[in-house]
Design goal:
The protein is an alpha/beta fold and about 375 residues long. The chain folds into 3 domains: about 70 residues, lambda repressor-like DNA-binding domains (434 Repressor (Amino-terminal Domain), Orthogonal Bundle); about 190 residues, P-loop containing nucleotide triphosphate hydrolases (Rossmann fold); about 70 residues, no CATH class. The protein has a 5-stranded parallel β-sheet, sandwiched between helices. Strands 1-2 form a two-stranded antiparallel ribbon. The longest helix has 16 residues.
Length: about 375
């Protein structure tokens, strides 16, 4: 049995009604009568995890069936089939990095982002960087790192960024996905991710009502490729974005925040795509993604299954300028050559050739 429990979002209203039904005029009076601290009672009613024994005691006093109203973790899906060789790639150069153990660096950005998301009200942030600078990988890392089991992380990899990570709901939205490019499709996806009832019709008014009434736990919506949504999705118009702004700032008690990834500032992006700026001016902090620090880059290089000699490490650092994608490319080519038993420098030429498609990362400007 879990050491802590919390009320499922869909039962928050029922809990509040039970308080009134049992004759308690306030949470403070209830706390005085039954024993747990006022903060514990407030957390219980807000759907925040509390001690198991306190949860049972409060439910008993309110005449609630604790098994019915407790939040139940979703059943885990069967693991996807692994490659026949059973070996994960140690160096990833194409797809975004989704497994935290293969993500390196960004310590400064992570510290600031989590600081803005661990206190109320949750604050909106923008991640700005060139194409292929690692924005999508950072979004996935934010979503996964705090709940990934320690055995699936690197030794001493920091994961305790939030005091109660189990209370958070993270929703990753890829606006390149055609299913996310219609208003109804996106709203339905968000509600299903929140485990809230999808209204019929699932329009903006009904969506706002459902979320305003039922969102009581910290929730972060991660918006990737938002420029695609602004350029190609006419249903995601100004009224849509302004409603999301209103939801975050006025109707969810500080429990909702947006983190978006973009190659330019949100306000400039809105202006350049013919949109108004109310939603896009709520991003009070911006993380600018540049190259990794040398220490972070050396940690990534050291993750190779076969160690590189000092000369190879210095060459990789110099040629990549510590950009994570370029580091991954050069490390991959050196690893391949070592696996083939090659100890010459012929891999340099192939590594530089593979880097050419991403030469824009070495330009001095932040965005294209």
């Amino acid at each position: 049995m879990a050491r802590s429990l919390r009320v499922a979002p869909e039962y928050i209203k029922k809990v509040k009604s039970a308080l009134e039904r049992n004759g308690y005029p306030s949470q403070k009076k209830f706390s005085e009568d039954i024993g747990p601290s006022l903060s514990t009672v407030k957390n219980f009613i807000a759907g925040i995890a509390i001690d198991y024994e306190n949860f049972l005691e409060i439910c008993e006093k309110l005449g609630l069936d604790w098994q019915d109203i407790r939040y139940k973790e979703p059943e885990t899906q069967a693991p996807k089939p692994q490659p026949t060789n059973g070996e994960a790639s140690p160096l990833i150069t194409g797809a975004p990095i989704t497994q935290p153990r293969y993500f390196f660096g960004r310590e400064k950005e992570l510290k600031r982002l989590f600081n803005l998301l661990k206190r109320y009200p949750l604050q909106n942030t923008a991640i700005i960087g060139k194409k292929r600078s690692g924005k999508t990988s950072l979004l996935h890392y934010l979503k996964n790192i705090t709940t990934t089991p320690a055995e699936q992380l690197r030794p001493e990899q920091k994961s305790d960024w939030l005091p109660h990570p189990e209370n958070y709901c993270w929703i990753f939205v890829d606006l390149q996905d055609a299913r996310m490019q219609s208003r109804e499709g996106l709203l339905k996806y968000i509600l299903e991710s929140l485990k809230m009832q999808v209204p019929a019709p699932c329009d903006l008014d009904h969506f706002m009502d459902v979320v305003s009434d039922n969102l009581h736990s910290p929730t972060v919506i991660l918006l990737d490729e938002i420029s695609v949504g602004l350029q190609r999705c006419p249903e995601l118009d100004d009224s849509f974005w302004e409603s999301l702004r209103s939801l975050a700032t006025n109707h969810t008690g500080g429990n909702l925040a947006f983190v978006l990834a973009t190659p330019e500032s949100p306000i400039d992006m809105a202006h350049n795509t013919g949109h108004s700026s109310p939603f896009f001016n709520i991003f009070g902090y911006t993380a600018y993604l540049g190259a990794l620090t040398e220490i972070e880059a050396r940690e990534l290089i050291a993750s190779s299954p076969i160690a590189f000699n000092n000369e190879d490490v210095e060459w990789i650092l110099t040629q990549s300028s510590c950009w994570p994608l370029l580091l991954q490319i050069l490390c991959r080519e050196r690893l391949f050559s070592l696996e083939e038993g090659e100890n010459d420098d012929n891999w340099h030429e192939e590594g530089l050739r593979q880097m050419k498609s991403f030469a824009h990362l070495l330009d001095s400007e932040l965005a294209e």
